[in-house]
């Protein structure tokens, strides 16, 4: 059976727990971001840009024939690239309906991101999550 969003969240939470303090977790998040495949220049378009982020952020949404959605993303900031990688671990490849009804805020609380990020980064993360949820809702409808 395919991994669910909840399973992906549990796995990420366990990885974060092993790392202990937030300095180590930030390094891990940045490392996750380094593993993202880069977007093409064409994909770094206004249409793919995420509003509400202090950094430049682009998200590409690719609906699949089976109802799942593949997300790809990039940013000009290392930590934000890492946060994109966290979101992609949770949501990419999952059914649109599952993404649309998932409580992202609770997931950020579970991972401890809500308290660990600056207000600006928290707002950017919320903007990225809202964009993913909007795209999923549109495709699930």
From TrEMBL:
Residues 14-134 form the Fe-S metabolism associated domain. It comes from the Bacteria. Pfam families: SufE (PF02657). Coiled coil: none annotated. Transmembrane segments: none annotated. Belongs to the SufE family. This is Cysteine desulfuration protein SufE.
């Amino acid at each position: 059976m395919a991994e669910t969003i909840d399973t992906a969240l549990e796995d990420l939470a366990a990885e974060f727990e092993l790392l202990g303090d937030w300095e180590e977790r930030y390094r891990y998040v940045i490392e996750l971001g380094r593993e993202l495949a880069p977007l093409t220049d064409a994909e770094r378009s206004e249409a793919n840009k995420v509003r509400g982020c202090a950094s430049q952020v682009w998200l590409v949404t690719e609906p699949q024939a089976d109802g799942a959605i593949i997300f790809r993303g990039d940013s000009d900031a290392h930590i934000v690239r890492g946060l994109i990688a966290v979101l992609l671990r949770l949501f990419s490849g999952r059914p649109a309906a599952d993404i649309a009804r998932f409580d992202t805020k609770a997931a950020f609380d579970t991972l401890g991101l809500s308290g660990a990020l600056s207000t600006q980064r928290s707002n950017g993360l919320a903007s990225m999550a809202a964009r993913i949820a909007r795209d999923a809702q549109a495709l699930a409808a």
